[in-house]
Design goal:
Order of helices and strands of chain B: HEHEHEHEHEHEEHEHHEHH
Largest sheet of chain B: 5 strands, parallel
Radius of gyration of chain B: 19 Å
Structural class of chain A: alpha/beta
Largest sheet of chain A: 5 strands, parallel
Number of strands of chain B: 9
Radius of gyration of chain A: 16 Å
Number of domains of chain B: 2
Structural class of chain B: alpha/beta
CATH architecture of the largest domain in chain B: 3-Layer(aba) Sandwich
Order of helices and strands of chain A: EHEHEEHEEEHE
Strand order of the largest sheet of chain B: 7-6-5-8-9
Helix content of chain A: 25-40%
Distance between the termini of chain B: 12 Å
Number of helices of chain B: 11
Largest interface: A-B, 20 and 22 residues
Helix content of chain B: 25-40%
Shape of chain A: globular
Number of strands of chain A: 8
Oligomer: heterodimer
CATH superfamily of the largest domain in chain B: Aspartate/ornithine carbamoyltransferase
Number of helices of chain A: 4
């Protein structure tokens, strides 16, 4: 991580955010019988797994976790060279009539979530779809809002939020990188 | 990557990327909505100068699963049968705004000509040219081999494959030898001397004139169709003799290692290069090859057309 990076969440903050999301999910679902967590690769999947184990500690139940790659549903495919696909794995039993919680690391423009909703539509018909994100950094470009947020992080549009998780990056932290020209995660 | 003309053009990483992508796209076949929006608004032309059923419908299905618009152009009954040249056909397709042309042609090198001319701006995918190459068939074979012999990940290092039959006329054999070698497999081509191509010793593979010699030492055996339409000369005395010498029957299958799979690109001549009981046995993966063909062609079209078009 370069010197312009400003760490805004450390390991303990991320852990607290995840536990709070887990509590809120359980509360809203009144138990967790028909819940499914779907992470958006790559860091969303790691977060989904952590939320699932946090729910397991609270409720003593095992929530199914899957991953949902949204690459083929992106609206900016033609702006960049074709990219490699990530894994999509839907838990056995499918998503029909389940409460699906989409999990991603950063909520920015909302375009990733829009793509994920389109992808879900082709896979089945959930009873409800909710959205959990570790960081909401604002600057929405679509009418999408999260149901569960680990941390609201006011940012300027030109900044970049980088989430690093142990499973993927070997460390847990969230940092803001100043004034990056483009390539903001979304 | 803009075109897919030859298996030789693919690096190991590119080939693995295509196969990995195909593995992800294969899941679409199991869903209730077997369609992705990825190529919405793109037009794919299937330009088939030679008869083909499975390759054409495989490409057609692959393009439709990705939401592309598909135009099928068969030479028979078209302007080509009235004497139109490849160039004029291509210019017509370009004028109609084709984003990709999937071409099968009886002349080796026709896709290369199309791709390297300024006749069309879109991507060219070789779906079989003369006796030259058929790269998507090699990719689907590699995908099938990897699923069965390498649990669906990485490359094909150390996998031993025998390709048996009419190597001389087979674009499937050529593409497979090149691609499987790139992926680290060890390939042996087996044919009667009359059906072995000139210069085969320069190919990156072993050669043998006896199927019985190679049987115990392969992980997969790929039987090629005896191409009656290319048999103007007498390459072997009789079909019965060919079948006895090079056909795969249950006695020969029994001599394969326990885990070895039997492949065939289709369409097959039952009783000629492969006996009916072998074709229908659980060892044979031909039906799966057809399924995998759709996934691999989806992967190729996604990777060629799905992203930003490269500057020309």
């Amino acid at each position: 991580m370069d010197s312009r990076a400003r760490v805004v969440l450390d390991e303990a903050d991320i852990g607290r955010g995840i536990r709070r999301i887990a509590h809120e999910i359980v509360e809203k679902a009144r138990g967790s019988d028909d819940l499914i967590l779907l992470g958006i690769p790559t860091r969303g999947v790691a977060l989904a797994n952590r939320i699932a184990s946090a729910i397991g500690e609270i409720e003593g139940t095992q929530v199914p976790v899957g991953s949902l790659d949204i690459t083929l549903y992106r609206d900016d495919l033609r702006l960049r060279p074709a990219r490699a696909l990530e894994t999509t794995s839907i838990p056995a039993g499918g998503i029909d009539s389940k409460v699906v919680v989409l999990v991603d690391d950063v909520l920015f423009s909302g375009r990733t979530v829009r793509a994920a909703l389109d992808a879900l539509n082709d896979i089945g018909r959930p009873a409800a779809v909710r959205l959990a994100v570790l960081v909401d950094r604002g600057h929405r470009e679509l009418p999408i809002r999260p149901d569960y947020v680990g941390k609201n992080l006011p940012t300027s549009h030109s900044e970049q939020v980088r989430v690093e998780l142990d499973e993927v990056d070997g460390t847990d932290r969230v940092a803001i990188l100043g004034h990056v020209e483009d390539g903001a995660a979304g | 990557m803009k075109h897919l003309l030859s298996a030789a053009d693919l690096s190991r990483d590119e080939a693995v990327l295509i196969i990995d992508t195909a593995a992800e796209l294969a899941a679409v076949t199991d869903r209730s909505v077997k369609k992705l929006p990825t190529l919405r608004g793109r037009t794919v032309v299937n330009l088939f100068f030679e008869d083909s059923t499975r390759t054409r419908i495989s490409f057609e299905l692959a393009a439709k699963r990705l939401s592309a618009d598909v135009i099928n152009f068969a030479a028979k009954g078209s302007s080509v049968s009235k004497g139109e040249s490849l160039k004029d056909t291509a210019l017509t397709l370009e004028a109609m705004g084709a984003d990709a042309v999937v071409i099968r042609h009886g002349s080796s090198g026709a896709p290369h000509r199309l791709a390297n001319s300024d006749w069309i701006q879109g991507s060219v995918i070789n779906a079989g040219d003369g006796t030259h190459e058929h790269p998507t068939q090699a990719l689907l074979d590699a995908f099938t081999l990897r699923r069965h012999l390498r649990s669906g990940a990485g490359d094909l290092s150390g996998v031993r494959v025998a390709i048996v039959g009419d190597i001389l006329h087979s674009r499937v054999a050529r593409s497979n030898v090149l691609l499987l070698k790139t992926l680290g497999a060890e390939v042996t081509v087996v044919a009667p001397p009359t059906l072995m191509p000139y210069g085969v010793e320069s190919w990156p593979c072993h050669t043998s004139y006896s199927i019985d010699d190679v049987l115990p030492d392969v992980d997969a055996i790929m039987m090629l169709r005896v191409q009656a339409e290319r048999m103007q000369a007498a390459y072997f005395p009789s079909s019965l003799e060919y079948s006895r010498m090079f056909g795969l029957d249950s006695a020969r299958v029994a001599r394969l290692p326990e885990h070895a799979i039997v492949m065939h690109p289709g369409p097959m001549n039952r009783g000629m290069e492969i006996s009916a009981d072998v074709a229908d046995s659980p060892r044979s993966v031909m039906v799966e090859q057809v399924t995998n063909g759709v996934s691999v062609r989806m992967a190729v079209m996604y990777l060629l057309l799905g992203g930003m078009q490269e500057e020309i």
